[in-house]
């Protein structure tokens, strides 16, 4: 049975790759992308939203494909000038990229919501598919480390290149943050909900930490499918496997399914981990490593076709 509306939960580069594949497969009215905002932070008076920008630039065909983030062919003359003034320019901001942050900051200070800002930027970059921040309220991932104590997420991830040992993760502000109306509407109308191959602890957990979010997802009697970011015991990119080891979680695809628990009713994993049976879940192996745009589109198409077979 064909599915009419898909909601994708993502954050970061891995999620952006699947979002791109789904964008190529599904028309705008059939796909909504809900994005982690717990990586957002202030820098030089600007509000930076790394995951929102990565998703938007990827869908808008502007992303630096080599890095997976930022804008292709961007320059960093502003950062060079700051370095000459003695600044530690540990977070790389491109000159063209600055326009996004300047506009976002101005709109937020003028009273716009993050949802409204994201829509303005998306429209301006001719991105047709709906991209929604998980909340209009600030939520911040804080990483408790063995070496440096509590670190703001970008300090852990960028300044220290995710090398400190993770002891615990906190999502500050999540208890008070609200789910935006358009996120609720998208979930309530979804015929399928996909949790992308993003880091479960850094990208997806903040979304799920919002009061009521898990219930909004679980109450939908539709395919709720997670795609594993772990392939043959490791992560294609980023610290997922390292964090699993440091938190005492076995570094295997099944641990991802176990982590999501009853939030999902189906699980997609890589062919290198086949066969995989998880109690209570329908499972299916795919080629999940997305090195090219074609890989992204092939995975998206095969994933959606499989999900259609799960619809009663």
Which structural class matches the secondary elements? alpha/beta
Percentage of β-strand residues? 15-25%
Q: Sheet bearing the most strands, described?
A: 7 strands, parallel
Q: Which strand order spans the largest sheet, edge to edge or round the barrel?
A: 5-2-1-9-10-13-14
Instruction: Report how far apart the termini are.
Output: 8 Å
Using only CA atoms, what is the Rg?
19 Å
Q: Can you tell me the residue ranges where pLDDT is under 50 for at least 5 consecutive residues?
A: none
CATH architecture: 3-Layer(aba) Sandwich
Quickly count the helices.
12
Describe this structure as you would to a colleague.
The chain is α/β, with parallel strands linked by helices and 312 residues long. It has twelve helices and 14 strands. Strand 1 (6-10), helix 1 and strand 2 form a beta-alpha-beta unit. The longest helix has 18 residues, at 293-310. 42% of the residues are buried.
């Amino acid at each position: 049975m064909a599915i009419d509306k898909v909601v994708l939960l993502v954050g970061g580069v891995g999620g952006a790759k699947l979002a791109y594949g789904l964008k190529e497969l599904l028309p705008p009215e059939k796909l909504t992308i809900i994005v982690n905002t717990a990586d957002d932070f202030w820098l030089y008076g600007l509000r930076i939203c790394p995951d929102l920008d990565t998703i938007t630039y990827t869908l808008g065909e502007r992303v630096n494909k080599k890095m997976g983030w930022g804008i292709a062919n961007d320059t960093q003359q502003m950062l060079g000038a700051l370095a000459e003034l003695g600044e530690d320019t540990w977070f790389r901001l491109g000159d063209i990229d600055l326009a996004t942050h300047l506009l976002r900051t101005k709109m937020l200070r003028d009273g716009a919501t993050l949802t409204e800002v994201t829509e303005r930027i998306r429209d301006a970059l001719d991105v047709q598919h709906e991209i929604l921040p998980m909340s209009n309220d600030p939520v911040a991932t804080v990483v408790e480390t063995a070496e440096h104590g509590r670190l703001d997420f970008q300090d852990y991830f960028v300044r220290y290149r995710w090398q400190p040992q993770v002891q615990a993760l906190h999502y500050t502000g999540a208890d008070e943050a609200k789910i935006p109306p358009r996120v609720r509407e998208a979930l309530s109308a979804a015929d399928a909900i996909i949790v992308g191959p993003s880091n479960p602890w850094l990208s997806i957990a903040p979304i799920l930490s919002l009061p009521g979010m898990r219930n909004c997802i679980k109450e939908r009697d539709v395919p709720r499918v997670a795609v594993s970011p772990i392939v043959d015991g490791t992560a294609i990119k980023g610290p997922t496997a390292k964090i699993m080891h440091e938190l005492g979680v076995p570094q295997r695809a099944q641990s991802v399914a176990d982590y999501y628990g009853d939030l999902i009713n189906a699980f997609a994993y890589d062919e290198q981990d086949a066969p995989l049976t998880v109690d209570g879940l329908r499972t299916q192996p795919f080629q999940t490593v997305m090195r090219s745009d074609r890989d992204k589109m092939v995975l998206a198409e095969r994933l959606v076709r499989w999900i259609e077979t799960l619809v009663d």
